[in-house]
Amino acid sequence: MSGLFMDNNGNRDWKKIAYHGRSAFAVLLSLAVLVGSGWFVVSKASSAYSEWKTADDFAAGAGLAEVKITIPEGASGSDIGDELVEKGVVKSRKGFMKAFAKNEEAQTIQAGTYKLRTQISSDQAVEMLLDPKSVVRNQVTVPEALRMKDQFAVLSKKTKIPVAQFEAAAKDPQALGLPEYAKSAEGFLFPQTYEIGQNPTAKSILTLMAKQYVTVAKELDLAAGAKELDRTPIEVMTVASILEAEALPKDMPMVAGIIYNRLEDGERLELDSTSYYATNTPLGKKLPANFKEQDSPYNTYKAYGLPPGPIGAPGAAAIKAALNPTESDYKFWVTVNYETGETKFSETYDEHLKYVAEWEKWCSTAKDKSGC
After folding, report:
1. What is the CATH T-level fold of the domain 66-134, as seen in this structure?
2. Backbone phi, then psi, for 335, in 5-degree steps?
3. Quick one: pLDDT at residue 114?
4. How far is CA 281 from CA 261, 274, 288, 300, in A?
């Protein structure tokens, strides 16, 4: 029997050898190509994975999931970066700081809570932090003229923080940042809309309000203005609180001048607004029949001079008017028509009574009797 590479005569068959050699080479060549290709793919994949692992940033895209992050007051760019890395928003602080440094507006990023996405590029993260639409709002509006206890009721309703916690926080006005002359926080918790954050406390909210009062007082130069009027800051704030309760904004400077006129002449102010405070009567309700006989420093029908402190929280316009009264010889005022806001001023009590009669006539036919 002849061998694989032998002919019938027992000699080597070179044709068979060549044929099988070519076949074997083709197989080996194919195998080499397959192995080489596989190694190339594995090498490339390994390189790409290595690059992804060592990159400072995620690729730009829509991100994976929504996430909320909170930036505290005074946080630096690196502090923000650490928070974003922890929440999976950006890949590294290094990458975020690069994006932070090249965006000129990044320094204006405010404290607060933001809605972002996980696994986004650092450039995207900076842009989202600068976008007002990303801010998670938690605001509360405290109107002007409210007494402190009514402010607390508004704040408690919004935040669900018990009123008692606000009362406790308000016991030390200076701990809230109020000036020494504010012996009570009454009237000094500035009324406006506040961004209170996601986890506010009674003290953190009242501190915001106290801080805003200090800001407004500085802007209006209250201390110097009070000295120029020969008044104390607390007296000016008391006048401002009366203006907030008694006068329309357009009339505040004139009414402030009238209050100072009466004080200078040693006359009682005789104001219902202070009696509401003296008798603890809710605003809009009817005063007790004997309110003018009440023994209280806030009863200006009986006591001379200003009450010992504000009867509510005045806004900036009222404070400004108290600091800049209009000079006149008037002693009285009355708004005779609450629909038009017409207010009439007088120098004598008899003239004032004539205008009071005009007001009463308007009240008798007015649809809205809230001012009557």
Report:
1. Dna Ligase; domain 1 (3.30.1490)
2. -85, 115
3. 93
4. 28, 10, 8, 15
